[in-house]
Protein 1
Amino acid sequence: MHLKNNLYSIDKKLLLTAGAKVNESTLNRIARRAGEIHYIKVKSTPLIKDLKYTFSDERYEVMLSPEETNKKILKIAGEISIPKLLLKELASIKKKLPYTYHHILIITILSAKVALDHHLENRYDIGRVMRLGLAHDIGKSRIPQQILNKTKPLTPQERKIIRMHPLLGYILLHYYYGKEHNKYDYASYEHHERLDGSGYPRKLKKINRYSQLISIIDTLDALISRRPYRRAPYTLRSAVDFLLNEAKKGRLNKRLVYLLITYARKDKPLLRGLKVSTKRRDFLPVYNVYGKTIHN
Ligand SMILES: [Fe+2]
Ligand SMILES: [Fe+2]
């Protein structure tokens, strides 16, 4: 894969020049160039206040109850350390792309919420889930805003550019995490992949379980958010129907989608014996050009 433009880190280092080939050796070089990484604990940064505020997002009122779990998530979040440059990157996203910033924080806490479920039998390290959530969409900051905010269908070229964000984030994370990069960079690269190989950018069928979790929450939030490319967002119900259908088609992890549903329902059903129907039970947004290009 080749880059279209120069790629700079948040501290203005030129990481790759336009046209550069991205491969193992260029990526390793970037990780080595990072040198010693300066970490900072989340609780001593503005991020902790923003994460706390994110719990008050009304759209997730049902999913983000009860209160005790939220406190637990916030406590774990406070204890994780992230590279100072990643923090700087997030601060810049907050200013430039407030929607993306809120989205990133929502993904971080909701993924932690699902990962805390005892049905997953401690298969997830919650701190790692949150680090991956915080890093998953940083590549968006390198996509021109006029493309991100477009209200009309994208041109094939624009779609190609947007689809670069997983790779751009992945490259940036090599620099921000240095030699520790492979612990925290993969969800950025994989969160738009689908288990049947229909995702992007690599059409993977084998996807890391952390990335699978992030991608389900990511899809949910993308659907129920107000976006320029549709007049109204999906309702939580129609979004859940959408996820169920994706799971049925073998694109998303069915067990994780089911777990998410147990949180999304007011009566908080148990996973065992959970009844779901894949019939459409709610209306879809009227004008929605998400994922469409002018040629389809
Ligand atoms: Fe993304
Ligand atoms: Fe995302």
Note: The chain has a mean pLDDT of 91.
Protein 2
Amino acid sequence: MTKINLPETGQPRIVIVGGGFAGLALARQLAGKPFQVVLIDRNNYHQFQPLFYQVAMAGLEPSSIVFPFRKLFQDYSNVYIRVTEVASIETENRRLITPLGIVNYDVLVIATGAETNFFGNAKLAQLAIPMKSVSEALYLRNAILDDYEKALTCPDVEERQGYLDIVIVGGGPTGVEVAGSLAEMKQYILPKDYPELNVSEIDIHLIQGSGELLTGMSNAASQKALAFLKELGVHVKLNTIVVDFDGEKVSMNDGTTLRARKVIWAAGVTGAPLPGLPETARGPAGRIRVDRFHKVDGLDEVYAIGDIAYMEEEAYPKGHPQLAQAAMQQAANLASNLLRQKAGKPLRTFKYRNLGSMATIGRHRAVVDLPRFQFQGAFAWLIWLLVHLFQILGVKNKVFVFFNWVWNYLTYDQSLRLIIRPRAPSHKNN
Ligand SMILES: Cc1cc2nc3c(=O)[nH]c(=O)nc-3n(C[C@H](O)[C@H](O)[C@H](O)COP(=O)(O)OP(=O)(O)OC[C@H]3O[C@@H](n4cnc5c(N)ncnc54)[C@H](O)[C@@H]3O)c2cc1C
């Protein structure tokens, strides 16, 4: 296998696998510094995952929440981007194997994030719809709109129910936000778009395995989220696990079933470490075990940050929460340590600073947990909007998202309800 085309600049080569919150933050902090930085991602863009659900609910254009890597690094000659999927690592030879060729590294940073966890259920993995990429969010948008179109011409009540009803599995922030957003779509948009449909026939079900929503947030946040969803007419079922789905019928562990063709899977994530890592690196939930300096256990010059990394800290004995904040803080500490190491200075151990967590459940409804206090309702919703707007990359994206939100707020009507089915030119299908 040949080497991937990269110039030898004489600077130490830091290869970052994954341009999510962690990998991208690290690459940005090392841009313009005395390293050759190679950023590898299977996509040529960064994805802002917290707003996937708004793409799926036709509230935002996919292009407003993704950002091309090349545009970000136009002014930095020490950053090289390669769009490919890393297949494995050969730590003894300090190299990565990709379909484009071999990539040698002096320092390797694994920031590959997490993937959807179907808990080993192959049928659910095949038929349920996850939301871990912008393409999956778009797929969901198409599936929802397509099924409403089919429901219009379906005379059979039972079959129509299957097209209309939606089951969301997982009552974490993603499940709760999707449920709230779908309930608002049902209330404000569908009666205008589909006057022939009886929207009261549409049922939105949220199934949560544990006894409360938003596990990990405060009790007040869990209770309020439940109350908000009930106000919006969402059927919430706690202490229930979805065990099967055949594309038409969803089965629960209490023996009950629901008729629905769409199951949105928001029940959790798991790490998927790259092949080639030693046994010592294996942490819980598929994550990679690292020390307080982000170094992978048992390896030299190999680091892991973000969702994939498992670091035990006194205050977080089971690892850090898999959140954007943790990913970015880890990236900042590693960047600073790589620079300190080069300057011969002592390294700093990582300490996670919890800045709080939040979730929104439709307009004027959100829950916010800050380290010292919690609040819910309209003010929390405003804070949620501001925090997310501030975090989106790029001025153009911020402006587009802001105008979309203002427009949707004033008109109760997004205009992105398009069913776009990507298709290759016919000669490519031959
Ligand atoms: C729907 C949803 C909503 C969320 N909402 C919030 C929220 O409101 N607040 C919050 O703090 N967190 C939220 N999160 C969690 C947050 O997005 C993650 O914690 C964060 O993305 C982790 O960053 P990361 O860099 O570790 O991984 P990611 O951001 O997932 O990035 C991983 C990158 O690695 C690339 N990659 C993976 N494997 C390979 C490979 N083999 N070769 C090449 N490239 C590869 C991927 O393409 C991706 O770009 C949400 C997550 C989801 C899915």
Note: The chain has two domains: 13-116+270-342, 122-267.
